[in-house]
Amino acid sequence: MRNSDLASVHRIQCSRYPVACHEPQVALQSRLEAAPAFCFVAEHQGRTLAYVLAHPWRGPAPRLHERLAACDEPDHVFLHDLCVSIEAQGLACGRALFGAVEAAARLRAHERIRIVALEQAEGFWSRLGFQDEHQPAGEGYGRARLMARDVSKASAPT
Question: What is the pTM of this model?
Fold first, then answer.
């Protein structure tokens, strides 16, 4: 992902989520700046179809709508957002983007990935091996669930 992708990322986010979940571009940019090696887009013919924003982290889920604070001693990768545009549904973009984050985590010796799963996405994350942590997701996340899984020790596909 590049800074030039952020307008498309924001467009996709606003098309797929309720207004309360629309984040300002400055908040999205702070996640890209914090961890560019964990942020990816899926493109086809120059058009962004899906994206993922993730970053090393420690503690509870970062607050929505705010710039990301620095994290000096992370103990996991926090997958902040993975969103697939309507036109890319069924193309396995979500699985591919998650695979890219997991490969980046494995390469950097992170052992755990955490997410806040919105209600409509819990099944997707469960199918990828995430389990409910039975903890509050944090302020601003509504009825979402905090979920986690270990990073696969398998080699990344070649």
Answer: 0.92
Contact assessment for residue 54 and residue 79, using Cβ atoms and an 8 Å cutoff: yes
Please report the DSSP string for 112-143 in residue order: EEEEEE-GGGHHHHHHTT-EE--S---TT-TT
Dump the DSSP string for 26-93: HHHHHHHHH-GGG-EEEEETTEEEEEEEEEEE-SSPPPTTSPPPP-SS-SEEEEEEEEE-GGGTTSSH
| Mean pLDDT in residue range 81-94 | 94
Number of Cβ within 10 Å of residue 126's Cβ equals 15
Name the nearest CA neighbour of 62 among 49, 46, 79, 47: 79
Average pLDDT over residues 128-146: 87
pLDDT value for 158 = 42
Question: Tell me, what's the pLDDT at 157?
Answer: 47
Distance CA 154, CA 158 (A): 12
* 3-class SS letters over 86-120: HHHCCCCHHHHHHHHHHHHHHHCCCCEEEEEECHH
